[in-house]
From TrEMBL:
Organism expressing this protein natively: Boletus reticuloceps
Keywords, comma-separated and alphabetical: Kinase, Transferase
Name of the protein in question: Ribokinase-like protein
Domain annotation Carbohydrate kinase PfkB: ranges: 110-243
The keyword Transcription regulation is assigned to this record: no
Stretches for region Disordered: 252-278
Length: 278
C-alpha cells in the first residue's frame, strides 16, 4: 500500500504502520504539502465524509517501477467517471474490484457505471448505494438486495458478463451473485447476539474488499469462498477504533489479530454456512 506522507505526518503513525510489517507499505515523502486527511462523521445511520486537507489521488501509474507494480488484484473506490480513467491505465490483467464512492451513487451516474462495469470483475456497493443507483426505495431486505444484484448482472458485469456483484448489507451479510451461479449469501461474522463486539464500522467495506482480494488469490478465484475471507477481515476492523492489534501467540507461534486467529474465524464461518445449507 502506498502511503503519501505530508510534512505533518506523525512519527508515531509511521512506527505504528511499520509494526504490521515493513513489506506492506511503500512510503512517499512530500515535504511541500500536508498529509491528506478526511473526516467521517455519523448522524444516526447517515454518514458524512469530507476532506480536511487537499487530497492526493492515486492511480495505477503510481505503482509502476515500484515493488508493488502489477498486483494480482486491484481495488479502488471512486466515481464511475474516475473508474473509467483508472481502468484505462491498467495495462496488465489483475482482478479488478470496483467500489463506487457513496456520494456518486445516484441514478444520474448509472449510465457511466454501466460502461465501467464491462471492464471490471467485481462490483461491490453496499445495499443503500446499490438501491440509490437503481432508484429503489424499498427497505433493505435480502429479497430486495438479491433483486438489485440480479439487475446489475443483467446490465453486464465483466468481460462477456462473467463478473460478480457483491452487495454488502451490514447485519444481513453479503449477497454474492454471478450469472453462472445465481446468488448466495455470506453471513456477517458477528451475529445479532454479538453486537458488543461492534465498536466502529468505519473501514468495514474497505476491509471486506481487501479480504476478498486476498481470498480470491488463496481460493483460485472462487468468489463465494473469497467472500468468507472478506467477512472475517471486516470482523476484525469493526472491533475497535482504528486498526486491530497484531501479535504472535507465544505458545503456538501463530499470528493473531485482536488475540484471535483469522483462520479460526474462517473455519467457524465456513461451518456456520455449511450448517445453513445442510
Amino acid at each position: 500500500m502506498i502511503v503519501d506522507k505530508g510534512n505533518d505526518f506523525p512519527t508515531h503513525f509511521h512506527q505504528k504502520l511499520l509494526s504490521y510489517g515493513r513489506d506492506v507499505w511503500l512510503f512517499r515523502e512530500h515535504t511541500d504539502r500536508l498529509t491528506t486527511r478526511a473526516l467521517n462523521s455519523y448522524r444516526g445511520d447517515i454518514r458524512n465524509f469530507e476532506y480536511l486537507t487537499p487530497r492526493l489521488r492515486l492511480s495505477p501509474r503510481d505503482l509502476r517501477s515500484t515493488r508493488l507494480a502489477r498486483p494480482a488484484t486491484l481495488h479502488f473506490i471512486c466515481s464511475p467517471t474516475r473508474a473509467l480513467q483508472v481502468i484505462s491505465e491498467v495495462d496488465w490483467d489483475p482482478i479488478i474490484i470496483y467500489e463506487p464512492i457513496p456520494d456518486r451513487c445516484v441514478p444520474e451516474e448509472l449510465p457511466t457505471l454501466r460502461t465501467a462495469m464491462a471492464s471490471i470483475d467485481v462490483l461491490s456497493p453496499n445495499a443503500e448505494e446499490a438501491f440509490a443507483l437503481l432508484s429503489l426505495s424499498s427497505p433493505v431486505t435480502r429479497d430486495a438486495v438479491q433483486s438489485a444484484a440480479l439487475c446489475f448482472l443483467d446490465f453486464g458485469v465483466g468481460p462477456s458478463g462473467k463478473g460478480c456483484v457483491i452487495i454488502r448489507s451490514a447485519a444481513l451479510g453479503a449477497c454474492v451473485a454471478t450469472r453462472d451461479t445465481g446468488y448466495r449469501w455470506v453471513d456477517a461474522f458477528w451475529t445479532p447476539q454479538d453486537t458488543f463486539h461492534i465498536v466502529d464500522v468505519t473501514g468495514a467495506g474497505n476491509s471486506f474488499l481487501g479480504g476478498l482480494a486476498a481470498g480470491l488469490i488463496l481460493e483460485n478465484g472462487d468468489m463465494y469462498q473469497a467472500a468468507l475471507y472478506a467477512s472475517v477481515s471486516a470482523s476484525f476492523t469493526i472491533e475497535q477504533y482504528g486498526l486491530p492489534s497484531l501479535s504472535v501467540n507465544s505458545e503456538s507461534g501463530v499470528e493473531e489479530w485482536n488475540e484471535d486467529s483469522p483462520r479460526r474465524r474462517l473455519e467457524a464461518l465456513r461451518q456456520r454456512q455449511s450448517g445453513q445449507q445442510g
